[in-house]
User: Fold these one by one.
Assistant:
Number 1:
Amino acid sequence: MIFRMSFLIFWDSTSPNGLQIPVAEAIGAILGANVELRENPIMLRGFDGGRNQYNASKILSDMQDIYTRQHGIDDYILIVTGKDLYIPGRDFVFGLARPSVRAGIVSTTRLENKYYKRTGTFYDTIDRVVKEGTHEFCHMLGLDHCKNGECIMFCPTTLDELDRKRKTLCSVCQQRLDAVTKRF
């Protein structure tokens, strides 16, 4: 089912190049929606020098101010960045969403094999960014975490857990998404 919502991915220059189109197309196929892709024109703030990471919550606050208030963007927005992210109380996060402002962020840092000194391919990173990007868009649409370890809405804490996820929603989460999208 194609529904009329606008999904926009801002690809930060710190993210690996060449993943943009396959990621946007795969997320669009999973959501059944068109996903627009743009370069991120905004410098991301929220760097914590003591951790050498970026605070994802602070970045989302900036997104709310810059994209939605100053530029009037009403789309569901996802930034894909190469910066390592955390939130207070967690060592790191693969991504974070703030549904109230339709904004989310995904970091490719810990989605790449090189971070863990693993061998792998370019396609591993595409697969992981698709899973996490879709996961964050679904949060923006009101879906919560799922206990099914294969569902895209499962909240992984390790790369292995992320790799076990499928690029689909379980039947319960798919029903929830379908219920939300019927309104559009």
Number 2:
Amino acid sequence: MKEKNKYLFILCGEAFSGKSTVSKKLSEMYEAKIIGRDKIYFALDNILALENTSDEDDNNLWKNLWPISIQGIKNQLFLGHSVVVDDNCLYLKQREELRSLAKEMGVKNILIYLNVSAKTLKERIEQNKINKDRHEVPSSWLAEDSKLFERPTENENPIIYTENDTPDKLFEKFNSFL
């Protein structure tokens, strides 16, 4: 029996760009584990009652979830699973760390940049206030993230997904990339 290729899918984009939706689809298609700070945060929320956490403490917690995510990614790759990193990966340094980990673990990494317009992001943020599909993110954090975001360049060889692309179009791009 031929062993399936293993991948580290690195999703990159601002909050509410659609990373979680894409990660679920990739997870289904490639039997990949999804790891990201949102998922860890929600798991901890039930235990730690995080809704009672101040914004400052919540922000510190968020930053401290990155090394936990990295360890989880490493563990899942070690166990032979493909992994989808469902995180904003705002900084080139974070993406480089993930690519280095993929190389260390002997798996191919694929960067998918969800490039969504500010208008669409705003609509999705407003919709989340009604649906509460994910935790509310303070608008000051969203604005700060947008300013700090080091968008992937051609040198990183990203697969670019926009809000005008259908999921099928993304996977068409993806399959031609492989």
